[in-house]
Amino acid sequence: MTTETSAVPYLEMNDGRRIPQLGFGVFQVPPEDTAEAVSHALSTGYRSIDTAAAYRNEAGVGEAIRRSGLPREDVFVTTKLWNSSHGHESALRAFGRSLERLGFDYVDLYLIHWPVPSRDLYVETWKALTEIKADGRARSIGVSNFNVSHLERIIEATGVVPAVNQVELHPRLPQAELRRFHSEQGILTEAWSPLAQAQVLDEPAVREIAERHGRSPAQVILRWHIQLRNVVIPKSVTPARIEENFRIFDFELTTDEMRAIDRLDTGQRIGPDPDQFSLA
Ligand code: NDP
Fold first, then answer.
1. Nearest C-alpha to atom 16 of ligand 1 is from which residue?
2. Domains with residue ranges and CATH for the chain
């Protein structure tokens, strides 16, 4: 096991703060297993954890960070506001509850989980997040699952550009147009389901590149993200995979290998269409 953390680059956000380019995601990690998985990630060297109110495991994330003995400021913590908490007052209350569950007095990054256009409250919700940032309880603020039109609307209404947009992104759905818009606006692209929930690991092109480098298919996909300048947050509850996914900073894909992975684009989503999704 490595405890080498310096290997993970930090990317600068548009508010001057920095985010580790590799983090650890805990979607679908059962609450009772979360502290153990996060502890293993921290001892492997991960210094960024991605949770959400909807995952019901914020308490386990906070517990593992406290147990690690690491200074709070050494770990970058992201959580998200769920769909049922849109609206100004609801957002402020939801944020307070997330802090309580985590057991912290601030988070590093607070995201609106989905835009929920059918409720049409995401502009108001974004304004609440700008207040939370102003009082320092979220060091940075951003969004998740926003498309170009949602982003344009919140920027136009508030003048505040999200630091990050966390979206479904993997070789089958490389989100080229959205990434272009992000880079024009100075928004970092964060990839959720970076491994397409393991569905792209058997692709012959990926296996061939992996064999050439003596790496696993998952390492090759994560390396593709890193070279695209995405922030990535792979999830695993398997200690050996948690370690494997961390070892991606000591090899490089060639331009041809990057292109071979780009060709796996089918436009196929794993998750719902952000324009339609309204689960409360
Ligand atoms: P991932 O693409 O990270 O894939 C996770 C799956 O891949 C798990 O089944 C895991 O298995 C398996 N896996 C992980 N590493 C390896 C490996 N090295 N070799 C083989 N299999 C591997 O999918 P997620 O959907 O979990 O996305 C990652 C994170 O993104 C989430 O945890 C969450 O933080 C975030 N997310 C955000 C969303 C949003 O709306 N903002 C939506 C979905 C995810 P096992 O655990 O059994 O080892």
1. 241
2. 5-198+230-251 (3.20.20.100)
